[in-house]
Amino acid sequence: MMRIFVPAMGRVNTRNRDGSEVRFAEIARRWLAQGVELLLLLPRREIGVLESQGVRAAWNVHWEPFSSESDRLWNVLAIYLWRILTCPFARYPRGVDAVYAPSDFLFDLLPALLCRWRNPGARLVVCVFLIAPNPFKGYENVFGGGFKRPSIRGVLYYLAQWASVQLAKWSGATMLVLNSLDKDSLVAMGGDPKRVHVVTMGVDGSFFDGVSALDETPVYDGVFLGRLHPQKGLFDLVRIWRRVCDARPGSRLGVIGGGSGWWFARLKQEIEAAGLSGVVDLLGFRQGEEKVRLLKSAGCFLMPSHYESFGQVAVEAMAAGLPVVAYDLPIYREIFPTGMVKTPLEDIEAFARETLAVLDDPARRDAAVAASRERAAAFDWQAIAEREMEIVKGA
Fold it and tell me: Residues 107, 9: contact at Cβ < 8 Å?
C-alpha cells in the first residue's frame, strides 16, 4: 500500500474553494478508492472543507489559536506565520513512500520538507499551480502591458514563491504546473526541466451528466463562477453586463463565488452604480449539485479573467453544456484550442458582442455548446489521478 504524506495548511476562509484545492480533493478521493493511504497535516478548519468534497483520510490536526476567517492582511499573515513557525513541532510520520505538497506556499512546503527529512527515501512532489505575477504588474496587467503600484500582498507572494521554488529545487523535488508557460517560468527560476511536469485540471463528466436543473433553480442568461477577486475580471464583468442589458433589457446574471468581504462589498457597489441591482444576483459560494444546476440553467458562461494558470471553472461550464466566452489569454490557446469563444483582452465591447451572439443566435449557440462538450471530455479526473500517481511513483 502506497503511503503519502500531504500537508494541507493553506485554508483560512472555509466559505470558498480555490482550483488547486478542488484538484487535490478530486485526486485524493480517487487515490483513496484505490487503497492509497493519505496522511494529512492540516488545521482543523480544513477538515470540513475536504469532507464536504468527499475526502476522508487520516487527519493530523495542527493546533492554532486563531478562529477568524477574515481575509484582511493582518489576519492572514498571523495565521500563516503561526503555521510556518510552528510546523517544526508537528508530528511527522515515518515509513511514507512519498510527500505531496498541494501548493508551493511555505506553509505547505516547509512541512513537506520536514517530513521528507524524516523519510529520506520518500519521493517529493510540489504543486506550483499559479506563478506569482510581477508585483509591479499585478494579476490585471501581466498580459495587458500596464503597470500598477505594488501591494504588500503582491510583493510578499512574489518573494515567497521565489524562495519556495529555490527550496524545492535544492531538495530535488518534482514540480507540477498547469501549462507550458508556467514550466518555462520555473525553468527560468532555475528549475530542472526534467523535474517539471505539465499536468491538467479536470471534471467528473458522469457526475455533471447525472445532475438536472430543478423547477425552482433560478434561470440566468449569463453566469459567472469564481473567486471574487480582480484577477477574475470582476469589474469588467459589470461593464460587460451593462452593455448586454443595453442591447437586451432585463437579461439576468448570476455571480457564483466566495472570497474577501471587501471585494464582495466593492463588487456590490459597482453593480449598483451601473444600475444593475435588479438583474445581477450575488449567489455566494455554491458547490456540488447545486452549482451544477445553476450552470445548467444558464444561457452562457462569462469568464473575463485577466490572469489564469488553467481555467478550471471553464471546464466545469463546458461539461454543463454552456458556451464559454473569455478573454484570449495565451494559456487558453494551449489548454482550450477549441471549445471557448475568445475575445481580445480588456475589450469589453467585443466581449459583450460575443455574449449577445451566443444568447440570441441559436445556431451559434448550438455550435459553441457542441465544441464545449467535446473539449470538456478531454479532462477526466480518473485519468488525471492515474497519471499523477505515475508521476509520484517516478519522482
Answer: yes
